[in-house]
Structures are given as C-alpha cells and as structure tokens.
C-alpha cells in the first residue's frame, strides 16, 4: 500500500512522548535538559549503497540508523533523551515502513529515547538521525582528555558467542565483495551479517565510565583512524598497541594474520568504545564494564607528545604495514 507523506508519519512514526511537549506535530521539538545538565547532540546519515546494502532487512536498517547515533552519545557519556528522523524514500510502501519502524522503535524503547520530529521526502533511500542526550555539566567524555601513560581500552561483547566483535563487520563486507583469500569455510555468515547490520551501542558503558575514562570515542571508521582523533585532540600524543592483545572472535582468528589486522585496526563499522584511563583504575574499569553488560580489553598504552603510533607484533617490534582508516571521499 502506498502512503502519502503525512499518512506515513502518522501511521509509523508518531508515538507518545514525555520529554517534548510538542511531540512530532510542530515545526520544532522542544527539549529541556534537567537542571545542571548539558545537551549532547549528534547526527549520522545512512545512505543506501554507501552505508548499507539494498538487501538489508528494513528492521535491521531501522535498528542500525539509530544505533550508530546512540553510539555517539555513548562515547560522550550522555544519557539518551530524544531523536529526530529525516527520511528520504524512493517510494512509500506500508509493509516496508512498518518493518523499518519496528526495528527503530524497538531499539529506541530499549534505550528510553523518544522520536520528537524530523522530515520525509521522495528521493534515494537515505536516513539521517539526530540524537539528543544529557550529561552533567563538566562530566562529558571527550576526545581531548587523554594523557601520556594512560591505558588504552576497547569494548566488545561479553561472551564469545555474541556477534559484533571487533572486525566482524569488515570481514562480512569483504565476504560480500568476494575478496580473494577470505576463509569462509565453517563461518556462521548469519552471525557476521548481524554484526554488520545490528551493532549494539555501548550506552550503559559510556554512562558508567563518566569520571573514570579520561578520553573516549566510538569506533566507526577504524580503530587506528579513530584513535588518531583522540591523540590529536589530546595534544599530539603517541600510542603503542599490542597486536596480540586485540580481542578477536573465532571468525576473525580464522583469517590470515594480514586480514585479521586489516579488519581489527582499519575495519570500522564496529561502534565499540575506544577509551583511555589511568592504569590505577584497571580493576574499576573491568568491574564497570561487567555491570554494563559488556567486556573490555586493555590493548596498549598512550605515549608522550610527539611519540609515534606503533602496532607491536609478537616479536616486540613495530609492524611495518600501514593501515588506512575509512574516508567517505577517499575510500572506495
């Protein structure tokens, strides 16, 4: 069944709200953070053919569109409040929209975040979400707080059988591309596709790390590339990453060492939290992650200003291969 613009909004994207007195029915949404809080705001866009395949199930597309934005709030240590959805559609099909909305609303309900507005138009399939969160004034996790000597940590699923381990999304992409040398025998491709299409934002961990982590970022474009943002914003620090410490699933461990490192260090689309903390807080970090329902692994140390960024191999020497992070205008 084809729908008009306002019919599809009323049918699939109008829900009761508590934090916005206007809901989705006015020109602007009104959001008031609690006393002593700051608003944290972020936007991410998903474009068909660039961020997702045309064959993705609409429920998963709805989930991922919100998940990648919630991941930004997690990296800031912000509690989700509300979001807007700008949706471009080649055609308005009721069944497809119902499934998209189902995936979107299910994740929104899980994180207690409300849809308060947005826009719809006809055009190539494109979803752009803006999220709003709140964080106590002065307590936000930032990229700029890292210090030399900090431990470097990465989050990951709590158990080996959960999908979404570092590098799995990139591995699935290489399988879709038919990249030579990828070892697919015995792999659970449904699990890998779930990792690619249904990332789990680490909101609970981000909230728990406020006051403990000194810097944080979510891994969307590759671990090394995103780490580079932290190092630059923190005054040009160096870093030493132990390749053997990088957490990896059985699917990743089955690949050649070169492909493993490519997926782990430059894969992206993981939406795990990469953060630094004082070495004295190691036990605290591990306990907070356990309470947040995920795992964390210490993968290295931050160096002094001007020191290099090195990935150290099993022999204790820096690996010579360079890894490039994803760039929307340079990567193909």
Automatic annotation (TrEMBL):
Belongs to the thiamine-monophosphate kinase family. Keywords: ATP-binding, Kinase, Magnesium, Metal-binding, Nucleotide-binding, Thiamine biosynthesis, Transferase. Mg(2+) 4 binds at residues 27, 42, 72. Residues 196-306 form the PurM-like C-terminal domain. Mg(2+) 3 binds at residues 27, 72, 218. Reaction mechanism of ThiL seems to utilize a direct, inline transfer of the gamma-phosphate of ATP to TMP rather than a phosphorylated enzyme intermediate. Mg(2+) 5 binds at residue 221. Pfam families: AIRS, AIRS_C. This is Thiamine-monophosphate kinase. GO terms for biological process: thiamine biosynthetic process; thiamine diphosphate biosynthetic process. Pathway: Cofactor biosynthesis; thiamine diphosphate biosynthesis; thiamine diphosphate from thiamine phosphate: step 1/1. NCBIfam families: thiL. Residues 25-135 form the PurM-like N-terminal domain. It catalyses: thiamine phosphate + ATP = thiamine diphosphate + ADP. Catalyzes the ATP-dependent phosphorylation of thiamine-monophosphate (TMP) to form thiamine-pyrophosphate (TPP), the active form of vitamin B1. SUPFAM superfamilies: PurM C-terminal domain-like, PurM N-terminal domain-like. ATP binds at residues 118-119, 143, 220. Its EC number is 2.7.4.16. Mg(2+) 2 binds at residues 44, 72. It comes from the Bacteria.
């Amino acid at each position: 069944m084809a729908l008009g613009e306002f019919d599809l909004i009323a049918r699939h994207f109008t829900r009761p709200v508590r934090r916005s007195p206007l809901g989705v029915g006015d020109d602007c949404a009104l959001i008031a953070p609690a006393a002593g809080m700051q608003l944290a705001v972020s936007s991410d866009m998903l474009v068909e053919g660039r961020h997702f395949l045309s064959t993705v199930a609409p429920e998963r597309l709805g989930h991922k569109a919100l998940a990648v934005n919630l991941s930004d709030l997690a990296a800031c240590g912000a509690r989700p409040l509300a979001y807007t959805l700008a949706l471009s559609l080649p055609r308005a099909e009721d069944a497809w929209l119902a499934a998209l909305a189902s995936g979107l609303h299910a994740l929104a309900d899980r994180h207690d975040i409300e849809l308060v507005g947005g826009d719809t138009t006809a055009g190539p399939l494109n979803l752009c979400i803006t999220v709003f969160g709140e964080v106590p004034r002065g307590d936000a996790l930032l990229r700029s707080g890292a210090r030399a000597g900090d431990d470097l940590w990465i989050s990951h699923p709590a158990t080996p059988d959960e999908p979404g381990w570092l590098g799995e999304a990139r591995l699935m992409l290489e399988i879709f591309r038919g990249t030579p040398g990828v070892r697919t025998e015995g792999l659970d491709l449904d699990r890998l596709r779930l990792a690619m299409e249904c990332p789990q934002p680490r909101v609970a961990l981000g909230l728990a790390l406020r006051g403990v982590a000194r810097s944080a970022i979510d891994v969307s474009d590759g671990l090394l590339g995103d780490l580079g943002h932290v190092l630059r914003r923190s005054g040009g620090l160096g870093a030493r990453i132990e390749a053997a410490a990088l957490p990896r699933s059985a699917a990743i461990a089955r690949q050649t060492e070169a492909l493993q490192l490519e997926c782990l260090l430059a894969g992206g689309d993981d939406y795990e939290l990469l953060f630094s903390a004082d070495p004295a807080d190691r036990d605290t970090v591990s306990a907070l992650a356990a309470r947040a329902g995920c795992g964390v692994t210490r993968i290295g140390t931050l160096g002094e200003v001007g020191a290099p960024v090195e990935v150290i191999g099993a022999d204790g020497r820096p690996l010579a291969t360079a890894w490039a992070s994803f760039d929307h205008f340079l990567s193909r």
